[in-house]
Amino acid sequence: MTLQEIAEFIGIDCQDEKEITGLNTLLDSNENQLTFLENKKYISDLKNTKAAAVLVTRENASEVPSGAIALVCDEPYLNLAKISKLFAPNVVEIDGEKPLVGGGTKVMPNVYIGKDSVIGSDCTIMAGAYIGDNVKIGNNTIIYPNVTVYRDCTIGNDCIIHAGTVIGSDGFGFANTKDGKYIKIYQNGNVTIGNDVEIGANTTIDRAVFNSTIIENGVRIDNLVHIGHNCKIGRGSILVAQVGLSGSTVLNAYVVMGGQSAAAGHLEIAAFTTIAARGGVTKSITEPKKSWAGFPLFEHRQWLKLQGKISNLLK
Question: Where in this chain does the record put each UDP-3-O-[3-hydroxymyristoyl] glucosamine N-acyltransferase non-repeat region domain (predicted)?
């Protein structure tokens, strides 16, 4: 769409007819994309953006780089939500190529495979699986019954996806109007899963708002785990049952999270960190190779001492 068409859609005057191909973050945008600034803490990112245009308040309009067009509005985040619908792909494609299935792959009855999808060789796709449009699955991967893989997602070689798991469902993203109404932010990214990944039953991995939710090689994910949009799970990490990760959380390599532990969004956990069961991570962990427990989070050894002292109070 042209920038003028987009501006008209949200009631902003802009005569520029530059073609806009999509939406992205401040730092990841290119010269054909639209971005936004709502929170002042990202003002330095605004100054370095390469976006064609930025949704921005009048207060921050002067900070928009000379190469970008400022679309001045009262509520940039809300307007981004409205615009995201314009770039959302079709839920189901009617046109496209028939799926390609590699040699030696077994596809059981009652499996749906969408347009333009590619499945590698020696895979097993069990009954009730739904593989959406433009999905790519590597070689020697097993998809158990009733797994759902939404459109545009990718799964590598030698993976195992257990029954009932959903890959690529929409991330939980909404903007509020002033009267409290929720406006959906369309999740136009995907999920990318590397090689040698095993995902347990009834786990959900949300697609990204922009770009990809990433599961790197060698990750092990238990049953009933939830991974929010735009998370990145580093190679060799382990997530035990009922772990929950809010959006844009980054786990570096070989992080272990015990059962029912969780992390708030937009934070990073250092490599080789261990979070004990029911631990709650609310701030980034920068020092690697440490163990943590509790909520609020303590180093594991200190947490054990604290529990001991509390027990003594009850005697």
Answer: 19-86
Low-confidence ranges of the chain (pLDDT < 70): none
H helix intervals, 24-89:
43-47, 76-84
CATH of 100-302, one of 3.40.440.10, 2.30.29.150, 2.160.10.10, 3.90.640.10: 2.160.10.10
How far is C-alpha 247 from the chain's CA centre?
A: 6
10 Cβ contact partners less than 8 Å away, ≥ 6 residues apart: 73, 79, 82, 83
Tokens matching residue 71: 């679309």
Nearest residue to 212 via CA among 167, 243, 271, 162: 167
Q: Determine which one of 162, 226, 229, 300 is catalytic.
A: 229
Which sequence spans correspond to the domains of the chain?
Answer: 3-87, 100-302
Q: Quote the pLDDT of residue 307.
A: 86
The string over 259-296, giving b where at least 16 C-beta atoms fall within 10 Å of a residue's C-beta and e elsewhere, is bebbbbeebbbbbbbbbbeebbbeeebeeeeebbbbee
Q: Is the peptide bond before 99 cis (omega within 30 degrees of 0)?
A: no
What is the predicted pLDDT for the residue at 314?
81
Q: Which residues contact 62 (CB under 8 A, 6 or more apart)?
A: none
Q: Do domains 3-87 and 100-302 have the same CATH topology?
A: no
Tens digits of per-residue pLDDT, 89-98?
A: 999 999 999 9
Could you tell me the CATH superfamily of domain 3-87?
A: MurE/MurF, N-terminal domain (3.40.1390.10)
Q: Catalytic site residue 229?
A: yes
Residue written as tokens 């303590």? 298
Q: How far apart are CA 302 and CA 304, in angstroms?
A: 5
Structure confidence at residue 310 (pLDDT):
87
pLDDT at 175: 95
Which are the contacts of 110, defined by CB distance < 8 A and separation ≥ 6?
127, 128
